Amino acid sequence: MSAISALTPADVTSALRPHRTASRRIGFVPTMGALHDGHRALFDRARTECDVVVASIFVNPMQFENPDDLARYPATLSADLEICASAGVDLVYRPAASTMYPVGFDSRVDVGRIGRVLEGRSRAGHYDGVATVVAKLLNVVRPDRAYFGQKDYQQILVVARMVLDLEIGVDIITVPTVRETDGLALSSRNTRLDANARARAVAISRAIAVTATRFAHGTTGARELSNEAIETIEAAGLDVDYVTITDPATLEPRETVRAGDVILVAATIDGVRLIDNAILGA
Ligand code: AMP
């Protein structure tokens, strides 16, 4: 079935009504478009686990604290719709900004501590924007399962917290990060890197991989491991925002690393902010 587009909540409700009546399992993949194989992995997973797959494409102004980043966010709608169709997405919800945030809109979902550390500290209000838009999308689509990429590790914790706290009845499914062959995590923002920056950006995933290897060989000092990772990334000419090794659920920094902890990295190259992470000892 080729993907059809729905532009309003009412379109989504009526398109999904027969499926809901037939108790078919609905899977949902929220995106901001500029789709790549990382998104594709989410669609594929939803396709294998659900009867109906819904994607959304909406570049959410509320989660961009930097207007320049929003203005430069890539838009590739016709290619996106082709990817959705070829991945077997049944319905693509792509609401207008005026539908999502009409005149008078004045609510926000604030997820608290987990949304204020790391990305939340560097990008004030970012996770309020994410949580608010995800809550709105979940309320419209009302899926059984929603799929998120591990690439945005903290985002999953924020969404999971919100879903639990607000009793939104949906299972949150995490899909592993899809990478280029050299290790760079796929991201819509990668298209903004020129060849030189692209070559240097791989330092992030390299540093993470080296940390994982060093941990596997017995180094457990979080400071030693993260300092080494910072040096590797800075040596490639990137500006490190943070490198931290934390408890995987609370994002509290560790002193001594245990198997299952997560290393999280944010760094900027040529004005493009990239994030990545990995579970250590996995
Ligand atoms: P975005 O369009 O960047 O908001 O991402 C939409 C969804 O795709 C989020 O759940 C992301 O975590 C996920 N995603 C983005 N890049 C990747 C990747 N390289 N691997 C797996 N999932 C990803």
Q: Looking at this structure, what is the CATH superfamily of the largest domain?
A: HUPs
Mean pLDDT level: 97
At CATH level 3, the topology of the largest domain is Rossmann fold
N-to-C terminal Cα separation, in Å? 37 Å
Give the name of the CATH architecture of the largest domain: 3-Layer(aba) Sandwich
What is the class of the largest domain in the CATH system?
Answer: Alpha Beta
In total, how many beta strands?
9
Based on secondary structure, the structural category is: alpha/beta
Give structural notes.
The protein is an alpha/beta fold. It folds into two domains: 172 residues, HUPs (Rossmann fold, 3-Layer(aba) Sandwich), CATH 3.40.50.620; 89 residues, 2-Layer Sandwich (Pantoate--beta-alanine Ligase, Chain: A,domain 2). The protein has eleven helices and nine strands. Helix 7 crosses helix 8. The protein is globular, with a radius of gyration of 19 Å. The mean pLDDT is 97. Bound molecules: adenosine monophosphate. The site of adenosine monophosphate has 17 residues, from helix 2 and strand 5. Adenosine monophosphate binds next to helix 2 and strand 5.
Summed up:
The protein folds into two domains: 172 residues, Rossmann fold (3-Layer(aba) Sandwich); 89 residues, Pantoate-beta-alanine ligase, C-terminal domain (Pantoate--beta-alanine Ligase, Chain: A,domain 2, 2-Layer Sandwich), CATH 3.30.1300.10. It has 282 residues and is an alpha/beta fold.
